[in-house]
Design a protein that fits this description.
The structure holds two protein chains of two kinds. Chain A has a single domain, classed as VKOR domain (de novo design (two linked rop proteins)). In chain A, about 75% of the residues lie in helices and about 5% in strands. Chain A is built from six helices and three strands; from the N terminus they run H-H-E-H-E-E-H-H-H. The longest helix of chain A is centred in the first third of the chain and has 32 residues. Chain B is about 50% helix and about 10% strand. Chain B contains nine helices and six strands. In chain B, strand 5 and strand 6 form a beta hairpin. Chain B is globular. The chains are: A mainly alpha, B alpha+beta. At the A-B interface, helix 2, strand 1 and helix 4 of A face helix 1, helix 2 and strand 4 of B.
């Protein structure tokens, strides 16, 4: 990824990185929407052959004051998608705002992975996918920010 | 155009996400099919003319099923459960409550559906309950397993724990040990699982009321009470 972006001009690298971020945030959005629907329908609270998901999604950490955390995640991914799209079209303010949103998402992700590993002691692959997406988005946006500074 | 295009893309994605969510919600909540229930509950099955019955109805499950309540009760609940599944443990007192409230109007059938490998002791628990069933004490073991679920959920060596329960409910321990690995026990678990798969059971607890699957969110006491009441009134 870095080699590819270095072969591009800084402006093109910014476009490439934020376009990639926008596409990847759609994966996070789909994942979070799926989990939200499953949560609201009650299905995620059941035990299934998909190991760990029911334990994680039926835990008290899956909601904040009755609101599914996945739903908040879906909104966050949509915000990141919107900001990444604006950034890909050259909006500088969107880049800074995106970094702020992703910083909050990254910290939340670390906390959720910690909860899965040490408190709930089960991993849900949909939650892990979301964590991977957030980490990838953070890396892409940091790289994008770096290239944007050069333009 | 360069200013409008990103806004357009964002709006298109927003609309697409909303449409996809609505489609998924609709797809995953199809009209509940009428399904003739277990062998022991055929008295309560849907009319024979109902052609919407899935093929799973052909799988009878273990015969006779573990059932509480009269065979001619107007309402039959058939639960596919896993003794190590926490939501099944939470449903246990709810079903007990319904049983005491509705008495002879309600028949409850339990089907083994151990989720392996999600729950490491689920199969051992199913075997323990079935082995107890061979001594006529399935429900005693069923109850003790659910009521103590949190105590044995994370135990490493489960055998002595279940043997302790077997002793407590008055089983012949030597016979219980022999029965644990018997063909009869294995066969009952297999047949219940086969019935569950044929009925598209994908998780636990899954409960059928007179052959119709109840959405998980309707298993809360207040909602379940209304469903049983309506079914017993023939609504």
């Amino acid at each position: 990824m870095t080699a590819l972006t270095h072969s591009l001009s800084p402006a093109r690298a910014v476009t490439f990185l934020f376009t990639s971020a926008a596409v990847i945030s759609l994966i996070g959005l789909a994942d979070a929407l799926y989990l939200t629907v499953e949560h609201l329908s009650g299905r995620s609270v059941r035990c299934t052959v998909i190991s760990g998901c029911s334990e994680v999604l039926s835990s008290p950490y899956a909601t904040i004051k009755g609101i599914p955390l996945a739903g908040i995640g879906a909104i966050a991914y949509f915000v990141v998608f919107s900001l990444a799209t604006l950034a890909a079209f050259g909006n500088r303010a969107a880049i800074k705002l995106m970094l702020l949103v992703l910083a909050a998402m990254f910290i939340t992700t670390l906390w959720l992975v910690y909860l899965q590993a040490f408190v709930i002691r089960h991993f849900c692959q949909f939650c892990l996918l979301s964590a991977a997406v957030t980490v990838t988005l953070t890396v892409l946006s940091l790289l994008g920010y770096r290239f944007a500074a050069k333009t | 155009m360069k200013r409008i295009l990103p806004i357009l893309i964002i709006l298109v994605v927003l609309g697409g996400a909303a449409a996809a969510t609505a489609w998924y919600v609709k797809k995953s909540n199809p009209p509940v099919p009428a399904t003739p229930s277990a062998a022991g509950a055929t008295a309560n099955a849907q009319p024979a003319s109902d052609t919407s019955a899935p093929s799973g109805a052909k799988e009878a499950g273990a015969v006779p099923p573990h059932a509480q309540g009269p065979e001619n009760a107007p309402v039959t609940l058939e639960e596919f459960g896993d003794f190590q599944c926490p939501p099944c443990g939470m449903l246990h007192p709810v079903l007990k409550q319904m049983e005491s409230e509705f008495g002879p109007k309600l028949r409850i059938i339990f089907r083994e559906f151990p989720l392996v490998p999600t729950h490491e002791h689920a199969l051992a628990a199913a075997r323990a309950a079935e082995a107890a069933g061979l001594q006529g004490k399935f429900w005693e073991m069923h109850d003790i397993l659910y009521e103590n679920q949190k105590a044995w959920h994370d135990v490493f060596d489960i055998r002595p724990v279940f043997e302790g329960y077997a002793t407590k409910i008055g089983l012949d321990l030597d016979r219980y040990r022999r029965d644990l690995s018997s063909n009869t026990v294995e066969q009952r678990i297999f047949l219940d699982g086969k019935r569950g798969h044929a009925l598209n059971v994908s998780g636990t607890p899954t409960v059928f009321l007179n052959g119709k699957e109840i959405p998980f969110e309707s298993l809360a006491p207040d909602k379940l009470r209304v469903l049983i009441q309506n079914a017993s009134n023939g609504k």
